[in-house]
Amino acid sequence: MLEPKKLKYRKQHRNRGAFYGKATSGAELAFGSYGLKAQTAGELTARQIEAARRAMTHRVQRGGKIWIRMFPHTPVTKKAAEVPMGAGKGSVEYYACVVRPGHILFEIDGLPADAAYEALTLAGHKLPVRTKIVSRIRS
Questions:
Q1: pTM of the model
Q2: CATH code for residues 41-78+93-134
Q3: Are the C-beta atoms of residues 35 and 104 closer than 8 Å to each other?
Q4: Which residues contact 136 (CB under 8 A, 6 or more apart)?
Q5: For 52-90, what is each residue's pLDDT tens digit?
Q6: d(Cα 97, Cα 76) in Å, to the nearest integer?
Q7: In this structure, what DSSP letter does residue 33 have?
Q8: Between the N and C ends of the chain, which has fewer C-beta atoms within 10 Å?
Q9: Distance between CA atoms of 124 and 55, rounded to whole angstroms?
């Protein structure tokens, strides 16, 4: 799973204000011919990204190339069950990344259109945000 190698600070604020507005960067296809674009804002965990990647890889077998266009930098903490208030911030449970509408999540190339669409559709089902498939090639 994706996880930062090194962080300046082990714990940080969630910055839920980042859910508002549209994506300013990463909103255009940069590498592949087909991409999966987010239509709603949300927070993707490293597990969700990995599940989507596995679904795509399994579908395309050994054909094509896949690019992951987001990375879970933000550590998300959680306190244990039935712990009283106070006593500090909880321990890091997982890493997540904020996704805004318009951000390209995955890109794929080197496949026929129908195979690419099917792989991206499977990946989209694994994610908690609404997505659409975009292509560089006008069909």
A1: 0.90
A2: 3.90.1170.10
A3: yes
A4: 29, 32, 33, 34
A5: 999 999 999 888 999 999 999 999 999 999 988 888 999
A6: 10
A7: S
A8: C
A9: 9
